[in-house]
Amino acid sequence: MAIIYLHGFRSAGASPKVDALKAAFGAENVFAPDLPFDPAEVVKLVADIIHARHLQTKWKNDKLIFVGTSLGGFYANYFGQLYDCPAVLVNPSTMLDKTLLDRVGVNKNHMSNEEFMVTLAHLDELAKMRNRVTAIYDSSLVNLFVAKDDEVIPYQIALDAQTFPFPNFVKVTETGGHRFSSQWDLVVNRIKELM
């Protein structure tokens, strides 16, 4: 079993949520890379992780699960659909080419204070990725968590039938906020059910 955790915009792979995943599933089974913003680089990074791990005997027959929050939820859906694996999406971003328009330019990572650039070409690539997975969408792979008190993305967007039609699993919580930290045990339990 292997879990690839994909973090949100301006965040990093190391977090209390990742620590909880490692405690529940073993550090050797959880991969949480620091993601660049460039979507093409993210695709290459995840493909490299999967390729490298599949070369190891212990991974050949193991289940792969993608988990992501916010922007990482978008990526978890993308890779889940692409690799035909379960994806656990937590307060996922959906229309990044629109919602990140005000972020075009220089941004700063919350964790490292490193600066990075968001360009219109990046947003165009994210739109293409969304369209690519919409064309091959398999609802049985989607496990969706949203918090009603999400202060960044209105939770109703993810619940819209056109965003994620007929997901395999949906959990709407009253609390948790955008980071979903206080409800993370629900995510851990869902991953256990998927194994």
- The CATH architecture comes to 3-Layer(aba) Sandwich
Q: How many beta-strand segments?
A: 8
- C-alpha-based Rg, rounded: 16 Å
> How confident overall, as mean pLDDT?
89
Overall description:
This protein has 195 residues and is an alpha/beta fold. It has a single domain (2-194), classed as 3-Layer(aba) Sandwich (Rossmann fold). The protein is built from seven helices and eight strands; from the N terminus they run βαβαβαβαββαβαβα. It has helices at 16-25, 39-54, 71-83, 96-99, 120-136, 155-159, 184-194, and strands spanning 2-6, 30-31, 64-69, 87-90, 105-108, 115-118, 142-147, 169-173. The strands form two sheets. A six-stranded parallel β-sheet has the order 2-1-3-4-7-8, with helices on both faces. It has a two-stranded antiparallel ribbon with strand order 5-6. Strand 3 (64-69), helix 3 (71-83) and strand 4 form a beta-alpha-beta unit. Helix 3 (71-83) crosses helix 5.
Briefly say what this structure is.
With 195 residues, the protein is an alpha/beta fold. The protein has helices spanning 16-25, 39-54, 71-83, 96-99, 120-136, 155-159, 184-194, and strands at 2-6, 30-31, 64-69, 87-90, 105-108, 115-118, 142-147, 169-173.
